[in-house]
Amino acid sequence: MNYKEKIKIFIVEDDTFFNKMIENHLKTINKSGGFQDYFFSTNSYSTGEECLKNLSKNPDIIILDYYLDSENKSAQNGFRTLQQIKKKNKNVIVIILSSQQEMVMTVELLKAGAYDYVMKDDSCFFRIGALVQKILNEKQLRRKKQNNILVKVAAMVLLLILLTALIV
Question: What is the mean pLDDT of the chain?
Answer without folding.
Answer: 87
